[in-house]
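Handout, page 2. Input:
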Amino acid sequence: MKNRTKELLNDGKAAFGVQLRLGSPAIAEIYALAGFDFVMFDGEHAPQTPAGMQAQIQAISSTDATPIVRLSNGSPDQIQVYTDMGALGVFSPFVCTAEQARIAGDALLYPPAGTRGFGPSRACGYGSDANYFKEANDQMLYIANIEHGDAIKNIDEILAVESLDTFVIGPCDLSISLGVPMDFEHPKMKDAIQTVLKAAEQAGKPAGTAVYGGDIFEEDTYKRFIDMGFQLILVAGDEWMLNSSCNQVMKSISKLQG
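Output:
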């Protein structure tokens, strides 16, 4: 068992990943083969089914990409199901308090570190992989989504939760929460982001963000986030990337069509 994304973060390096909402195992495999460090399967904003999630996780199992599931509510029962499928990380939405962070973190880990239960599932080779239980706790990656003003107020307490590995700033929801929708250059947004980055540095935990305010096809976009202090970078979702690519192609075609 190997969690490439966690290894990169622990080594102080940047990890880049994409989000999958269309539910296609083929798209998941294309992302993984392209070289992204992680593929995040979105169970919050997309009509995913448990069977569909497992098929997508299986599709990238022969690659080095880390399978991460974006939960819809961060509940222990969801975490149990997805980790049993073979997910090596979970992304818990709207974490605003340390208690919320702790509940999800406990559900991710086997005792004595947590409360995860055993099932002869795909993750452990349907019961045949004895090493899984020795390695699972160390390899699991727990990511909190920081996307509300309350999370900013409680960020020190949230990052103090031992089971929490890292976080991702959700710029869109955070800006809405702060009363400055999609204005990523507003002083309120800049102050909030600096508060979180400072707290992460003090806690000794890597910081992450979804890409905002830049062109995902330009190297400078990612350099800017790395220079700011981010390590975990969520590039975009499959819908957005497909839409952007189609629009770029159509611009070229439309010139020929007059």
